[in-house]
Amino acid sequence: MPKHILVIGPTRSGKSQWAEDLANKLDSQVIYVATAIENPADFQWQNRIKKHRDRRPAHWETLSTPYDLIKVINKTMPPCCLLIDSLGTWVANRLDENDEEWDYVVTDLFKCIEKTSVKLIFVAEETGWGVVPAYPLGRLFRDRLGYIVSKLGNIVDTTYLVIGGHVVNLSILGQKIQTNQY
C-alpha cells in the first residue's frame, strides 16, 4: 500500500467511500480527520455528516479538525493512518486568510506532508471542470483548492480519480506535470 494517497473527484462521486475502503485494507490504526464544521441548524449538512459517520468502522477514531490540519499531521505517530476528508472543506474554512497568510499555511502543509512517516489518505474535490465562478470568493476557493490538489498529486505515491461510477488510478495512466504557483 502506498504511503500517501490522494483521492479526487466531483461531489457525490464516491471518493470518500473509496478512501475509506483503502484505509480499511491497512494494517494500521485509522484516524479519520473530519474538516467539516458542524452546524446543528443546517439539517441537510448534519445528515451528510451522519451518513459519513455511519459508514465508517466504529473502531476508527475521529478528529474534528476544521483548521489545524498541519498540527494533526505533525503530532501523529506511526503506525497510524490519517484519512483526511476533505481538503475542499479545509480550504473553504480558511478563505478569510489573505494571500500571505495562505501561502504560509500551504508551504507548511507541504513541508509536513513531505517529512511525516504517517500514512496519509487525502480526499479532495475537483472543482475546476465547470464555468469560472461569477464571484471573487468562488474563484479564490477554486484556485486555492486546484493548486493544492495539483501540487499534492505530484508528491503523493498514488492519485485516484473517482468519477462516473469508476475509480481510475492516475498514477498508472497519467504523467506528472510541473505545478506552478496559482
From TrEMBL:
Enzyme Commission number(s): 2.7.1.156, 2.7.7.62
PANTHER family on file: BIFUNCTIONAL ADENOSYLCOBALAMIN BIOSYNTHESIS PROTEIN COBU, PTHR34848
Biological process (GO), any one: cobalamin biosynthetic process
Listed pathway(s): Cofactor biosynthesis; adenosylcobalamin biosynthesis; adenosylcobalamin from cob(II)yrinate a,c-diamide: step 6/7; Cofactor biosynthesis; adenosylcobalamin biosynthesis; adenosylcobalamin from cob(II)yrinate a,c-diamide: step 5/7
Stated name of the protein: Adenosylcobinamide kinase
Active site feature: 52 (gmp-histidine intermediate)
Record's keyword terms, sorted: ATP-binding, Cobalamin biosynthesis, GTP-binding, Kinase, Nucleotide-binding, Transferase
Reported function: Catalyzes ATP-dependent phosphorylation of adenosylcobinamide and addition of GMP to adenosylcobinamide phosphate.
UniProt cross-references to Pfam families, sorted A to Z: CobU
Catalytic activity: adenosylcob(III)inamide + ATP = adenosylcob(III)inamide phosphate + ADP + H(+); adenosylcob(III)inamide phosphate + GTP + H(+) = adenosylcob(III)inamide-GDP + diphosphate; adenosylcob(III)inamide + GTP = adenosylcob(III)inamide phosphate + GDP + H(+)
Binding site for GTP: 9-16, 34-36, 53-56, 85
Gene3D superfamilies: P-loop containing nucleotide triphosphate hydrolases
NCBIfam families xref list: PRK05800.1
Family: Belongs to the CobU/CobP family.
InterPro entries: CobU/CobP, P-loop_NTPase
